[in-house]
Design goal:
Elements lengths: L1 E5 L3 H13 L3 E5 L2 H10 L4 E5 L7 H10 L6 E5 L4 H9 L4 E4 L4 H17 L5 E4 L2 E4 L4 E4 L2 E3 L3 H12 L7 H7 L11 H13 L8 E4 L3 E4 L2
Parallel strand pairs: 1-2, 1-3, 3-4, 4-5
Antiparallel strand pairs: 6-7, 7-8, 8-9, 10-11
Helix pairs in contact: 2-3, 6-8
Length: 223
């Protein structure tokens, strides 16, 4: 996959490009908005990663210009601006996804690869639904039977992973690697604690429990 990184922080851009290259992707880079616009106009990119706040031309203006010109290359916005209104602004400008800094690099790769897959199928998924549980990936909100559920950031990440693997047994190792980015078992009860908190929020007060413990295997979210 060929990716355009438009980021004025050269250290961050270097690290991002190295990580994406290690994951098997080719990266071109631009250090400001105008350079990013010039590169994008040449075409050939599967996904663009665009910082919002840049010199010469900000990320919002860059993407708005490309959309007016008919360029529909998927765009992932990166920004330290993480309020709901900030994310909505990015999406209304033509962004397809929005990731708040600081971010986990594994999540960046997963989102970029997901955008590329969605482009192939012609749709961008911004809402996850499992049974009567609904997650808005952009607004970062969760509802069950219309009732809003307040989650902490790690709980949100944990539930998103479980929803993407609904009906499947998810092991402790999978959660450690994909949600906590541990590639070893720290021998703590961090997963048990978060699963317990998440279960109390999405299941308590509802007739049917969705978050199941699979003896000897891990956990499963049932729709």
């Amino acid at each position: 996959m060929r990716i355009l990184i438009v980021e004025d922080d050269l250290e961050a851009s270097d690290a991002m490009a190295r990580g994406l290259a290690d994951a098997g992707h080719d990266c071109d880079r631009a250090a400001d908005g105008e350079a990013g616009l010039d590169a994008a106009r040449k075409g050939g990119f599967d996904v663009m990663i665009v910082d919002r706040m840049m010199p010469r031309l900000d990320g919002i203006s860059l993407v708005e210009t490309l959309r007016r010109e008919g360029d529909q290359t998927p765009v992932l916005f990166l920004s330290a601006l993480g309020e709901v209104n900030d994310r909505v602004t990015g999406l209304k400008a033509g962004g397809d996804d929005y990731l708040v800094k600081p971010y986990a690099f594994l999540e960046l790769i997963a989102r970029v690869e997901a955008l590329a897959r969605r482009r192939e199928t012609g749709s961008v998924q911004t809402v996850l639904k499992v049974g009567d549980l609904e997650m808005d990936l952009i607004g970062r909100t969760v509802h069950r039977q219309g009732q809003e559920i307040d989650l902490q950031p790690r709980e949100f990440q944990l539930l998103e992973f479980m929803m993407r693997h609904a009906g499947q047994s998810v092991t402790r190792t999978m959660l450690l690697e994909k949600v906590w980015e541990y590639h070893f078992d720290p021998q703590t009860n961090v997963i048990d604690v978060h699963i317990s908190r998440l279960r109390s929020k999405i299941d308590k007060g509802f007739e049917r429990a969705m978050l199941q413990t699979v003896r000897g295997a891990g956990y499963r979210l049932e729709g």
